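Protocol step 4 of 5: obtain the predicted structure for the target chain.
Materials: sequence only (see below). No template structures provided, no constraints applied. The aim of this step is simply to have a reference model before the mutagenesis design in step 5. Sequence pasted as it appears in the construct record:
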Amino acid sequence: MSDRIPRGPVRSRPPDRYRRAVRLDETQAQARLLTHDHGVLCTVHPQRGPDAVPVAYAVDGDHLAVPVDTVKPKSSLQLQRRRNLELDPRASLLIEHWDAADWSQLWWVRTELRWIENGDGRVAALTARLAERYPQYAERPFAEVLVFRIVGRAGWAATPQ
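Step 4 output (structure tokens):
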């Protein structure tokens, strides 16, 4: 018997098509952010940490809006994400593309955000963008529109596109 410790299976190198993965620059990340239609907003809960929820959003320049709408059923319009932002204005929006059959098509973009409590005069323009982007929002059924300043973008893609 050998005293050698088994190290697990020998891993082969990934196929060439997966070695071309690229880090997206801010322009590429912004382009994907503008064309994608939903994401996961992450705020910081004071006890449990990251608090993630799927959201619709719209972008206008370096600002992003997430509506608190009356279209989808809710037990209350006093949402935890708003309470989290009152305590810590940092947030992130994650968008991604998944293809179970072809992993060469995978990509993600994470947008770093800072909540602007009073909307900084951006609410009207962002509300209009939301109404243009989503037919369900044509009549602007918003209890509130959360406005964020975009402070950073990062992204990754399995292959250059």
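Step 4 remarks: Strands lie at 22-24, 39-45, 49-55, 58-60, 63-69, 90-97, 107-116, 142-157. Residues 105 and 132 are 28 Å apart (CA to CA).
Proceed to step 5.
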